Amino acid sequence: MDPTLANALDSMFQSFDTAKSADPRWPEVLGAMTLSFFLNMLIGLLYKSTYKGTRYSQDYVHTLVIIGTVTTILIMVVNGSPAVAFGAFAAFSMIRFRRNLGQSRDLAFVFFAMATGMGIGAREYPIVLVTTIIVSLAILFISKRDAFAPNRASHQLRIRVNNDVDFSKAFNEIFAKFTDAIEMISVESVQAGMMSELRYGLILKEGIHVSDFMEEIQIACGNNRAILTSTSRELDM
User: Fold this and answer.
1) What is the pLDDT of residues 93-130, one digit of tens each?
2) Rounded CA gap, 140 and 190, in Å?
């Protein structure tokens, strides 16, 4: 690294350390708030651009931005004050996230926004900028590359059969013809005990027509209810 650039970076970091030894002034507070809002807006945009489900919520993204920005205020207030920090911890313990998270990654984004707000509130500006960029690039990479995705979309099959049907054998030929893998998940008694609802997890073979598969399932189950569910759609026949 160029010695001049290294000295400039070292001087910048030393100036940050010196500034943190004193209470934040209003210009720094406003600057921190602006930086926190901007970074959390980027986190919200990142969430929206990488979301792949069907339950996208604008309200949730707004909440991410608000949580991150408010956390910055809170950390700046409690900085150096154990009594205030304890009160803030008690307040946080009373808060419950009121939205049912549709995906596990939703919770990760909540932590991402809070960590960004906490870092800025602690006045660790260089660290927050670097880590936010690195984490955002990592999320973009695994999302755009569709990392760790299964080879084919998994499906779930629910069918209802009369109790006189031997379901342990009734669908074996159909499953062998249309699926690469099949697993029974559950058997449930329905219709006041007059029928059984079977739930299977399966992987359909490449190139098969879903309509052909469902037609044979429909015949085998006696024209009772059959539902094939994938990550993108539900077929009810």
Assistant:
1) 555 555 566 678 888 999 999 999 989 988 889 999 99
2) 45
Rounded distance, CA 100 to CA 236, Å? Answer: 26
**How confident is residue 236, by pLDDT bands cut at 50, 70 and 90?**
very low
What secondary structure letter does DSSP report for 100? P
Supply φ then ψ for residue 206, to 5 degrees.
Answer: -65, 135
8 A C-beta contact, residue 61 and residue 47: yes
Q: How far apart are CA 183 and CA 171, in angstroms?
A: 12
d(CA 222, CA 214): 12
Q: Give residue 193's pLDDT.
A: 80
Residues sharing a CB contact under 8 Å with residue 217, sequence separation 6 or more, in sequence order: 157, 159, 171, 174, 226, 228
Residue with tokens 């996208």: 56
Query: Mean of the pLDDT values across residues 134-161?
Result: 85
CA-closest candidate to residue 217, choices 187, 182, 178: 178
Backbone angles phi, psi at 98, to 5 degrees: -85, -5
Domain segments of the chain as ranges? 3-144, 155-236
C-alpha–C-alpha distance, residues 114 and 100, integer Å? 18
CATH 3.30.200.20 fits 155-236, yes or no: no
Which pLDDT does position 234 carry in this prediction? 41
Q: Check residue 231 and give its pLDDT.
A: 55
Tell me the average pLDDT of the chain.
Answer: 81
For 9, 37, 47, 91, the CA distances from 42, given in Å and listed in that order, are 25, 9, 9, 27
